[in-house]
Amino acid sequence: MPVVSDRISERVTEDFGTSAPQVLSALERLGVDVDVDPERVHAAVLLVSRRSRTMLDDALEHAGSDWRDLLERAGLADDGWRQRVDDEFGRAVATQARRTDHL
């Protein structure tokens, strides 16, 4: 189960308030391919959800069935995905950046 990064966790709290623990748990339960940075998929889920619980549930389901399409929908499918995540969620701390430096 992938651990949610601090910056994703902060955004979940901002976007979903009292529902944040359930959202974080759902993100951690996502089956993410070992070749994909889990933060990338988590960010895609949040971007596509647009702070809507209904859209979040749809994005979580989509991530479980077709995460590549979800990355496309979120604008995170190309090589510039790291910059987009930094722009949307703030820069990652150095230890997170090293830990999630693959795909």
TrEMBL record:
Domain of life where this protein originates: Bacteria
Name of the protein this chain belongs to: Uncharacterized protein
Species assigned in the record: Demequina capsici
Lineage, uppermost ranks: Bacteria, Bacillati, Actinomycetota, Actinomycetes, Micrococcales
